[in-house]
Amino acid sequence: MITSLNTGSRKHALRWVGACVRSASIRYNSSDLENRLNKEAIKYGFFKNDNDWENQGVPSNLPFEKRRHSETFGQLVRSDNLAREDKLNDGGINVIAKDLGEDEVTDSPYRNKDGSFKQGENTEESRISPETLLGRIEHRTTELPQEIATAVNNHILRLTEPDRLREKVAILFRDMTREQIQHTPEAPIDCDAHIAAFFLQDYSNVRQVLLELQKRVGAENFKPRHILDIGYGPSTGIVALNEVMGDDFFPETKDSLIVSKNNFEMKKRAKIILSRQVNEIQAEAAHDEVMDEKAVTEELHEEEQEFSEDESDYVGPVDTSQITLKTKLRDTLPSTKSYDLIIVNQALLSRVYNFPRDVDDNLHEILKLLSPGGHLVLVERGNALGFETIARARQVMLRPESYEGENGKIPRPYVKGSTFKPQKNLKGSSNNEGNQNIVSEFEQEIIDKYGEVDENELAMDFENPEEYEVSPLEPETKTKSSFNEPSPSQGLIDYHLSVVAPCPHHGRCPLQLGDPSYYKIPSHKHRFNFCSFDKKVMRPTFTTELKKGKRLALPWDTFAEDGFGLDKIPRKKLKALEGSGRSGSNNIESGSYSYLIMERSNNNEETLKKIETARECKSADYFDHDPTNKWPRIISNPTKVKNNVKLHVCSPSQNIEIWSVPKSMGKQHYYDARKANKGDLWALGRKSVVVKNRVSEGTIEKLDFLAKSQKKKFLKDESKKQWKKLISASESDFVDPSIQLADELATSLEQSKKYKVQGKRAKYSVNPTLYDGK
Fold first, then answer.
1. φ and ψ at 282, to 5 degrees?
2. What pTM value is reported for the model?
3. pLDDT tens, 648-691?
4. Which of 33, 352, 376, 61 is nearest to 181 (CA)?
5. Which of 62, 106, 397, 418 is deepest in the core (most CB within 10 A)?
6. Nearest 5°: phi and psi at 56?
7. What DSSP character marks residue 186?
8. Distance (Å, rounded) from C-alpha 532 to C-alpha 594?
């Protein structure tokens, strides 16, 4: 314990010492103490207890008192050298910088001579092998741009009453948990609730998938010129693509289809969000050959900065009719356009009971618009229904059951989208020859019986050849420009699709069951897994403010009738929640998603012949030279045990396997395996493998039987409830709830003191308590 000569109380002294610790510097008000510090011979005195301090003993010259050993840990003590150099009370921080020699910098095998990393952006990425780094996906936490977060908060969500918005969002979360599918928002409050509930995670998921597509194709090759986004939200795919490509991204066409019968309200909100991105600002100079792209970008940045400074404090509605964007917001799919990038965000399936018909029909309409060399990105929720939707779309495009013996990622023909459609003979050639022989024998039998048939007998009664002038047909002169001339690739299917990510093969999906209802069977002993991935995203202000209060801050009772069970929460718990926000929460949330990235091959003659040759050889080595297409995908978080790492992967052998990477494989292999994460590609092999069994056909039949039985039981229980209500002897079962509620309100009003007093003042002739309704 120390004090200056001018300290008046113990409390003031303690506050003074605390301030000194925070600022890491000591200042003394006593000039006498400063003079003594400047002397060469310094005597230190310590207070052993609080009584000595109260008796105004001589204080210590050290910043802190030397007390018991247990209380000295972590305290800052200044040395005699600082006191002799008159630097004991210096408020500045002296940093001793060490000049690293050239040998010390170049000793690290992971850094260049200038100290920068040889690969990667941090220490962990610099230490892993180049193959592991190539197979990695983006694991950093996503953050929504501040301009977009502010626009959503100030111009969309703050215009709605918070309690009503939280109620709508809670209903959306409950329905998503029960039905696992998004519904079309139409009313203004529904659009606001949809943005508040789903926009943040949808943006993070789509951005993550687009980043992987950019990495697999190559940043220099990924430059789409015609883009189409399809979804329920405010053009979430376009917003994510603009952030991935940067401010210098000015494609020729950007269309966004907001799926809804009445999408006017969501269009207005999409305009507000998109207008906060630089590459959405309409600028004629962007395509001017005189001005370069850097000058255009700088000009747009200046305009956006001026606009943000003026509008940052404004809270209220925005006149969206005055906003012009590069993106065209559409109501229907175009019929004549083609796109080289199509993003479908949770829009393949509109109704659960229409699975898989909705998926097939919507996918066929979308694939009509994909141009050769283009990419199709499908993103769904990371639940059982979302995975089965993605798996069904994959099955429709690849048809793995028709190519059982094929290995590798050879592009598969999509016959529906091809210009030339091969025709299959319903009968074999031997049967055709037999039929022709039967016809010829029957014809000879008729000729032998009735004689030969001439042309006059075959002519109709009204036909008279003499009345008509018959001229022979002239042979057609074929020109080079004639459309009847066969093309070099005529007879070949010119529409082929292949998987970019996440699947390492084109075979049957080992996790696909074929029906989402199988996952909801409670009486089955197995718990089925599905392929989904996670992404963390930073919560902006509007999300942290939204998830407060009893509806979104407390756990729900999912077995309650309304799905919330808020009426059963004790008052004491609700009172403790008042004013505390959302206790135990953090500013990061994680969303799960399932996805599929498809690529359409070019339909030139050379590419089509390569595909046919690779299919004849049943090997993709002739066509595909990318090594990442043969690497397995990690589908769950690695299990780390002592000196061993187990990776659950989807392998190129079309199976789910558990790969063991022990320490004996090598230091680099073991280090990379410990740093691997869910969603990465694994390139360094394994020492041992365990192949997981697929769901057998017999199990599928049992699941189908149990699903139908469960559906029948549910319908039977509902029918029993209805019949019980109809044949019930209780009068209350036939009373309309609205009438009953009105009667209760009227009774409570009549019994109130205020009603009786006002009745007496009005001099009513009938006493309401004695009135029997006559």
1. -75, 115
2. 0.72
3. 999 999 999 999 999 999 999 999 999 999 999 999 999 999 99
4. 352
5. 397
6. 55, 50
7. -
8. 5
